[in-house]
Structure formats: C-alpha cells, structure tokens
Write a structure and sequence with these properties.
The complex is a heterodimer of chains A (about 250) and B (about 650).
Chain A (H helix, E strand, L loop, with lengths): L1 E11 L7 E6 L20 E5 L2 E5 L1 E4 H9 L2 H4 L4 E5 L7 H13 L3 E6 L5 H10 L2 E5 L15 H14 L2 E8 L7 H13 L4 E6 L5 H6 L12 H11 L5 E5 L2
Parallel strand pairs in A: 2-6, 6-7, 7-8, 8-9, 9-10, 10-11
Antiparallel strand pairs in A: 1-2, 1-5, 3-4
Helix pairs in contact in A: 1-3, 3-4, 4-5
Chain B lengths: L1 H7 L2 H14 L8 H11 L4 E3 L2 H7 L16 E3 L13 H6 L2 H7 L3 H23 L5 H13 L5 H17 L10 H15 L4 H17 L1 H4 L10 E4 L1 E2 L5 E2 L2 H13 L5 E6 L5 H12 L6 E4 H11 L3 H5 L2 E2 L5 E2 L11 E4 L1 H10 L7 H24 L7 H6 L3 H4 L13 E6 L1 H17 L5 H9 L5 H8 L10 H19 L9 E3 L37 H9 L12 E6 L1 H6 L1 H14 L3 E6 L2 H9 L8 E3 L4 E3 L5 H17 L1
Parallel strand pairs in B: 1-2, 3-6, 6-7, 10-11, 11-12, 13-14
Antiparallel strand pairs in B: 4-5, 7-14, 8-9, 15-16
The chains are: A alpha/beta (about 250), B alpha/beta (about 650).
Chain lengths: ~250, ~650
C-alpha cells in the first residue's frame, strides 16, 4: 500500500513539542482560501513548474518507507519530540497508516497531528488510539458561513467532543481571517463552544503569505485578505482567557 | 619580459616588491597595475628588511596601549628565503612558567643563547621606554617586563601581558597565523589566585581580558593571510580531560561573553565539546554563535582525541590538543605540524581520467577502478611536492617548541617533538556526486551514454535540464543514506591507506582532512564536472551540501569513517537564519548535544539570511559590521572578494529552500 506524501520535513519545532519530523499528506476536502499548503489540497500527485522544469508535488511512500524516514531522527526526539502528521487533512490517511501508527507507538515515538477534523468520526477513533497530542484548527463554526470553506461544523464539533472526552492533550488553533473566521458571528460561536467545553490551550494566529509561491507554481493566485490589527487580536485573546487557561499568539 | 626582469633586477628587490604587493593585495581586491606601481613607489622605502633578529629588534617601534604594551611594526620584517613556519600554536604556559634565564639554562646552542640575549635587549628597550613614560599601570608593567627576564609569571594581568609580548615577537619575526592555544586552562590558576587573594576583582579581570582580545584584533588586516580576517588567532576553550571529566572555568565563560560583546570577527573561539559538556555551557556557546559573530567553532573531543592517539601523539598531548589557524588539531608547543602544507583536489584526477581516457567501453566498476589509479598517481605528486618544501630557520620557535632545545635541532630541521605534515582537501563531494550521477544516469536509467555526458561536460553543460538532473540525484554527498556514505568512505579509506605509509624528511607522518580554504582557489583550475559544476564553479565548502537540510548533513557526517590519519579537519558547515537559533535555542542546543553523542567531527555555521547578504552586497555601507564565517575564520562580509560573497549568498538561499 502506498500513501501520497508531499513533504517530510525534519527538525520542526513548531508542530508540536521538542524536535519533530512532520509528514505532510496530500488531500483535504476543505476549501480554505487562506491555505498555506495549496499543494496538499488535491489527493493526487500534481505537476508544477519550477524555473521551467516540471517537478511534482507528492510522492508515493510505503508504510515501511515512512517508518524509516520518521525514525531517522529519533536520536533527537528525546523526551518530547517525535512525529507530527499534517497536510492537507492527515486524518484521511489514518485507516491506511494504522499499522504504521501501531509500530511507532511500540517504538515509543510521540505522535502529534494537525487536523481540521473534517473526516468521518471513524478516522478520529483510529487517531485516538495512537495520537498523543491533537493540534486542532477551529475555523468556521457559524452554520451560515461554513459553506465558504466546505466545512461541516456539526461533524467538526462532534469529532472535537470525542477528542475532548478522551482527555488526550488538545490544542486549539484559530487562524484569524477577516470575513471568514474573524467575524462577530463566528467568534461568538467559538466563544460559546469554548465556554461549554474544557479547553486547556488556544493558539491564535494571523494568516501569512508564506505559501504564495506554491500557489503560483500551481498556476493559481493566492487571494489577499485584510489583516486584523493587533488591538483586535489582543481583545480576542483577553476574551478567550476568561474561559481558557492558556491563550497564545503564534508568530510566523 | 619576466625573464628580462629576473635578469636585470636583483633578487632581494624582487622579493621585497612581491612582499609589499602581497600585503597590498590582501583580500584579493583587484588593484590595477597602475595602482600597484603607485603603492610600490609610495611604500618601498617604508618597508625595511633585516638580516637577523638583533637588527630587527633594535629598530622596531614599541607600542603603548591602554593596559598593555603590544604592537607589531608591520613595515619592519626579517628576510627569508624559504617557507616561514606559521599556522602554529606555542604553548603559552611554557613562557609563563619560564623566564629568559630558565631558557638560557636549557639551551646548549650558542645561537639560541644569542637570540635570548636579543630578546632581553628588546625587553630593556621596552623597560626604558616605560620608565620615561606616564603609561597606565607603569609600576606593574615595569615589574612584569623585568620578570620576563628572570622570574616565572605570578599574576593574571602579568600573564596576559607576557602572552602578548611573545605573541608580538612571533608576528614580528614573520610567523603568521599564530594561535593562542588553550587560554582558559593557561590563565585559570592565575585568575583564581588573584581573585581569591583580592589582588584583582572580577570586573577588572574581565576588562583586562576584553582589552587583550581587542588588542589582538587591532591589527587584524596586517595579520591576515589569504583573505582579510584569516589571522589564525584562535583561542581554544573547554575540553575533555584524561579522567573523563569535562574541563571549563570562569575564563571559558568570560571569553564566550567577551567575544559576544565585542562583536569582532577576530580573535575567534574553538570550543572543544564532548558528551559530558555541561548543557548550560553548550547553550551559552550556541547563543554566541547565534549572534552571528562567527564562533565558537565546535570540535568534538570524543572523535578527535582517540584518533590523535592512534596516529601517534602521546596520550597526555592528545588530550591537550589545540588547533592550527582554522581547526586542524595540533599539539601546542610541541609541533612543527604544518597542517595546511598542500591541498588534495579529489576532483582533479577524476576529470583527468575523463579528459585522457577513451571511456566509451567502460562500465561503472571500470570507471571507479580507474579513478583510484588516477587518484594514486595524483597523491604521489602531492606528497612529492609537499616533501620539497624547505622551512626557514626559526629561533623563536626553536626556543619555545619542545624538543628543539633538548635535541639542539632547529625546528626547521625537525627539532620539534612532532613533525607531521597535514594536507587539506577539496572536491570530495564533487567526486562522490559525479560517480553517483554516472551510475544512475548512464548505467542504471541509461538516460545518457557516457561519451554524450562527457561531451556535455566538456561543453560546460549548456542545457539547464542536464544540470538539474546532476544536482538532484536523490543519492548525493550529504544525504544520510548508505549509498553516498559508503562511497565517501571508500574514497577516504583509499586515501588514508595510501598516505598511511608515507613519511616526510623528518620521519613524520602525513595526515589529511575533509576541509580546506581552497574551495574557490582550487576550483578556478578545475573544469566542469559530472556533479553539475560548471567550469571554475566553486567547490562545496568542507563537509556541506546546498541540497540537504542541516539535520541530514549532520547525520551524514556523523556516519563517515574518519580514519586515524584523517583528522586534519572535518568540519560540517551549514547556514541558518539569525532568528532560527534565537527562536529555537533549547531545541537547537539539544540537537547539537545529541549530535555530539552521535559523533560529528567538527562543526561551524553561518548565521545569516540571504536577504541580509543580498542587501549587504548592494549597500555595503549599511552593513559595516556584518560578520560571516569563511573557512576557519570569520570576516566582515564587506571585506570579502565578490566571489566569496556570491557563494555565501547562494548557500544561504539554498539553505532557506531546504527548510
């Protein structure tokens, strides 16, 4: 069995604790216009141009190959490092990679995932067996606006509650995009959710344009978004701190 | 024309002109012939060459500074016919524990005794000048300079001054690239005794050490060898002890602090690391590296010391190793050991093979085998040429380097305890990548035939698509996979075995390393190669790759088999952005610590971004203090020749892509 991976990035320090290897899977059903990994939206290998040379986003790996690359840096993982699965929406691959997850757990490798929980819950159930820390992107919970990114907020909340109930370590990440995630209604929905569920940590971040070159390589244009100002960011942070122990602002 | 000039103009005149123009061309800034002639005319009579130390020491100026008496009279030089010994490190504890009288008692040689008298004469000139002056610390300095004649050193300030005195003599006599050795060990007792007795306080001790470093830096342009900044003023700190403990002291920490504060590229630090280095010390060193000041370089005792012992250095000496100007281990105060005698260009015999032979019917194994034949013939030439080098006599080194006095033999004739020759190398990655490319694209995928690919090489690779293939082989030097690692080890082992039974004229052995200053100069003589290099394109620096992330490179380098005679520098060299270390200090410290355990040999990094370098290239006046790491030294970016700047920019860009 082969999985399509767009990148295996070594020495990552912002995708979980310690030193990590982050594996980026291809494929996502959401359509977030601010996505900084557009090469991971399609589930297929894609051609792109780099200085007039045709290259590819995505390469097939067997589970053994993935295990090999993940374990290459295990001397650096120490107590807190390990592997982070990201993407795209990495959960879509979890049925296929379950044998790998089992092996990694047996090897004592710490596993994190970065996810938007946009898959059916049986994928989440697999994750719950092996994943140590969930980094969960909360985007649009406002039912009137979820169509903008092809989200199903009911499914999302159901998946999130499953994870919260498991007591596994869970960090919520909120990208702040005006007219999308950063609207009064959506923020109210997020705050309502946070009020009624035990969330230990939230990370807020302004979106960035580090993925712009990737859009161009795919013949696409990355849309422009208004930037939220620092006062608005601090105001939201302070509001969330009424309900959540730790609220950080990530900088890129 | 050259022959006419040689016939008409006396040798001494030509030699002096060459020396003056070499000084003028430091930094390889391209001056026009007109500028050179003007400079020569203006400065010819300023420079004076003396036939012996006595006449030199009679006339050199004496320089007073804030706390010290130190300075080199750059226009007054000793005449020399042969290769002046440099790139060395005396053991400064010897001059602190011995007065001139002690040296007299040890010397059986009238010439050395006369030399000691000359030093005393010079000392007396200094003492006279101090007496007539109103210099700061007049009484102390008078006592310290008098003590050089007949007493051991007793105090910390005195030790610093005495070190500067002898250091100055080395430079004045024309020896260049003078290392400072293990200053933390050397100064430790003096420091603690004076602090504990109240003779000095910690604040003053730091100020004195800082002033000492600034003074060493003062004449760095004159002290520079090939490029500005290449002074060899390397201070060794830390290190594994014979009992397994890790040595460091307050001086170690002070030096790291001072180098960080003064923000000068010179002098620089080399931190000897080991598995049992305290994490906090390692973190401090990494924070210092993270400021972009260019040091410390990290040298892994766990890899080096055993190899020094296997090579033939006494165990006690091996544990006390210092370094040549860049990073090549040597035993301070006991070695002739010129560690940069010659440079092996691994690519040259490979290109020669393809330039000379009809390879149309060769398979891959034939090519590999033939390469080793060409490599052997080339190494014979390198060794023969190296053996021809004659050294200039040196009274000061013969006085201070063991066992010259004991044997009563000048250092230039093999009087030192150790007389091994060191070779550096370039082009190893080019050969490895060339072989791997030929294997893949010619014999496995059959994308090109060998003659076709060779023709493209000889035509300097007109097509970008071919370069792209050659530079993007999944297996290449720096990739942490069995294939490139074993091929690299194969070439290294071959070289090691060949060199192992070679001796120089003093009965010393040969050692070699994986690094060299010559990555641009040697490349200028080397045409396009199968690793995708175009004609005269720079070689990869030391152990590096533009195509792999640093974590991969470090893993690769840790898996290389460094042979027992292959310890003459094995430096991993990579680029990280300035914010990277700041933002990841704990993780990066952990990474370096684990890499020490994993077994890298030596490591240095450039902490710059491509954006910063590009801006500095365009607007140098806005970045006067931007420091970068070149080979074994740091330099102001603005003072580098353009090709070095461009290479650094390219490396920074590639490194950012790899992340």
């Amino acid at each position: 069995m082969k999985i399509i991976v767009s990148n295996i990035q070594r020495f990552c320090t912002h995708d979980g604790p310690g030193i990590r290897t982050t594996v980026f899977f291809k494929g996502c059903t959401l359509k977030c216009p601010w996505c900084c990994n557009p090469e991971n939206i399609s589930f297929e290998i894609e051609d792109y141009l780099d200085n007039n040379l045709v290259k590819q986003y995505g390469k097939e790996y067997t589970l053994d190959e993935l295990e090999y690359y993940i374990l290459k840096d295990r001397i650096y993982y120490c107590d807190d490092g390990g592997v982070t699965f990201s993407g795209g929406e990495c959960l879509w691959q979890f049925k296929k990679i379950e044998p790998l997850l089992k092996k990694l757990k047996k090897e004592g490798i710490n596993i994190c995932i970065e996810t938007s929980l946009s898959t059916p819950s049986d994928f989440v159930e697999i994750a719950l067996k092996y994943v140590d820390t969930f980094y969960i992107d909360v985007k649009i919970l406002d039912k009137n606006k979820e169509y903008l990114i092809n989200n199903n907020s009911d499914l999302f909340i159901s998946n999130l509650k499953m994870i919260l109930a498991s007591k596994k370590k869970c960090i919520i990440r909120i990208p702040l995009v005006p007219d999308y995630t950063f609207t009064k209604d959506n923020i109210d929905c997020i705050i309502d959710f946070v009020k009624s569920n035990k969330i230990n940590k939230i990370e807020l971040f302004k979106i960035h344009r580090l993925g712009e070159l990737k859009y161009r390589s795919l013949g696409l244009k990355m849309p422009y978004f208004k930037e939220i100002n620092d006062d608005e960011l601090i105001e939201l942070k302070n509001k969330l701190e009424e309900y959540v122990k730790e609220v950080d602002v990530l900088k890129f | 024309m050259k022959r006419i000039i040689k016939k008409v103009l006396p040798k001494s005149f030509r030699r002096k002109c060459r020396f003056i123009l070499d000084n003028y061309s430091k930094g390889q800034i391209k001056h026009s012939n007109k500028d050179k002639i003007i400079y020569l005319c203006k400065n010819y009579f300023k420079y004076k060459f003396y036939k012996d130390e006595k006449s030199l020491l009679k006339s050199v100026n004496i320089f007073f500074n804030n706390n010290y008496i130190y300075g080199i009279d750059w226009y007054k030089r000793l005449k020399s016919d042969n290769y002046v010994i440099g790139n060395n490190s005396i053991d400064y504890s010897k001059i602190l524990n011995n007065s001139l009288n002690d040296f007299r008692k040890e010397s059986k040689n009238i010439e050395i005794c006369n030399f000691i008298d000359n030093i005393e004469y010079y000392l007396n000139r200094i003492i006279k000048k101090i007496k007539r002056s109103n210099i700061n610390h007049k009484d102390e300095l008078l006592a310290y300079f008098n003590n050089i004649k007949n007493k051991k050193c007793e105090h910390y300030y005195e030790a610093l001054q005495r070190i500067l005195f002898y250091n100055q003599l080395l430079w004045q006599f024309g020896h260049n690239l003078n290392g400072l050795g293990r200053l933390d060990k050397i100064l430790g007792d003096y420091y603690y005794n004076d602090i504990n007795s109240g003779y000095i306080d910690k604040e003053n001790a730091k100020e004195l050490l800082k002033d000492f470093c600034l003074l060493l830096n003062k004449d760095y342009i004159f002290k520079s060898s090939s490029l500005i900044g290449d002074t060899g003023q390397l201070i060794i700190i830390g290190g594994k002890e014979m009992n397994g403990d890790y040595f460091y002291n307050d001086i170690t920490l002070l030096l790291i602090e001072i180098i960080k504060e003064i923000k000068k590229p010179d002098p620089k630090l080399l931190l000897r690391v080991s598995k049992n280095i305290p994490i906090e010390l390692l973190k401090k060193a990494i924070k210092c590296i993270g400021t972009g000041v260019g040091s410390p370089l990290l040298s892994n005792d766990d890899q080096i010391i055993d190899r020094l012992i296997s090579f033939g250095y006494d165990k006690k000496d091996a544990y006390n190793y210092a370094s040549s100007a860049c990073w090549e281990p040597l035993i301070p105060g006991k070695s002739l050991d010129p560690n940069n005698m010659n440079c092996i260009n691994f690519l040259k015999p490979f290109n020669d093979l393809f330039n000379n032979e009809d390879i149309s019917n060769y398979n891959f194994e034939d090519i590999e085998k033939k390469y080793f034949n060409y490599l052997e013939a080339y190494l014979v030439e390198v060794i023969d040429k190296t053996n021809e080098i004659e050294f200039e006599k040196s009274n000061i080194f013969s006085l201070l380097i063991d066992d010259c006095l004991k044997k009563n033999i000048d250092i230039s004739k093999g009087g030192a305890k150790y007389n091994n020759y060191g070779l550096t190398s370039v082009g190893l990655s080019s050969v490895v990548n060339s072989l791997l490319n030929i294997k893949k694209y010619v014999y496995e995928e059959k994308k090109y035939n060998i003659e076709e690919l060779n023709k493209k090489r000889l035509d300097n690779f007109v097509e970008e698509s071919v370069i792209n293939d050659l530079k993007n082989n999944e297996y290449q030097f720096g990739v942490d996979e069995e294939i490139p690692i074993s091929l690299t080890n194969k070439i290294v082992k071959y070289t090691s075995n060949f060199i192992a039974n070679k001796e120089n004229k003093f009965g010393g052995k040969y050692k070699f390393g994986f690094s060299s200053p010559n990555y641009i100069t040697s490349s200028r003589e080397t045409n396009a190669s199968f690793d995708g290099r175009r004609d005269k394109e720079a070689f990869s620096v030391h152990i590096s790759s533009m195509h792999v992330p640093f974590i991969e490179l470090v893993q690769f380098a840790s898996k290389l088999d460094y042979p027992d005679n292959g310890f003459n520098g094995g430096v991993i060299d990579f680029v990280v952005t300035p914010t990277f270390i700041d933002n990841n200090i704990d993780q990066f410290t952990k990474f370096i610590y684990k890499s020490i355990e994993n077994g890298f040999f030596q490591m240095q990094m450039n902490v710059v971004s491509s954006k910063l370098l590009i801006n500095a290239r365009k607007n140098p006046s806005l970045y006067p203090n931007l420091i970068v790491r070149v080979w074994g030294f740091s330099a102001y970016f603005n003072e580098l020749p353009d090709e070095y700047k461009d290479l650094l920019i390219e490396r920074a860009k590639q490194s950012e892509n790899n992340c």
